[in-house]
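FORM 7B: Structural annotation worksheet

SECTION A. Query
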Amino acid sequence: MLFGKVRWEEMFPDELDAALERCPVVYLTYGLCEPHGPYNAVGLDALKVHRLACRAAQEHGGVVAPPFFWHVHEIGIEARWAHDTIGDRNPWLTDVAPWVLYRMFLYHLRAAAARGFRAAIVLSGHAPYGEDLARVSEIFARHSPLRVWAGQDSEVTDHPASNGGHAGKYETSIFWALRPDLVDMSRLERGGGRVLATGTDADESSRRLGERLVEERVAWLGRKARELLEEYRAPDRPDAPAPGNPLGALTFDATERIWRDEVRPMLGELVSFQEPETRVEPGSPWAPNETCELYD
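SECTION B. Predicted structure
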């Protein structure tokens, strides 16, 4: 059985009501615009996971939240990587500081629970920051009945790849299968060499491989959605009233307390704040935001 419309922003209120009743799972997807070689559109990270979530929801049920095209970059290990693989070119990034993203993410989870979803699957198309979203999700889940799984799209498989990562064989193949209009492998030949963060094994990419990988991931997501729904337990006492949700939801004040008391104190432990083994040269355009300690 294939479900019809699954994109939250494209559905009518009665369609959303029916989708929630049928399968109270929401997909939250995160990525950014970032170079992935000259042969992939820069929005790969966000477009990839959003389209993957749509395929999963169409096959297994659920609602896909509007894609979020802003993610972590420029800081920590990203500065070293970008200095080496992008250089002085305009990277066309849609990035924000990690503490901005994770505070917003906390509110995204709060909104999902307030709308009555029982489970959320959070997909980061930008690695390795699915680990950070998982840490924030774990904290949120202590205060809400919403069951959450968060991670990177490379994890949603029983056979994770050991290579073919950023703009490489596996990522490019998956994107090719999901958005063939946004992959142009002839640009790899014209670009020549390792430019704009080209994957080392990108020339091994194929749409057929991507279709197989997408099928595996859609099946995995369906199983995970069912597991989360089975784990759900309604709270004994409703939270603050929320429109259309008899179980209520966390207030903004409660969400801010979670941020202040639990999330913010552990930010320094996250992948986003890891420093590279070797810092970039002071004259590099990637140097100014490599480290930052003045977050709130």
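SECTION C. Observations
The chain is about 40% helix and 10% strand. The first helix runs from residue 13 to 22.

SECTION D. Sign-off
Analyst initials: ____
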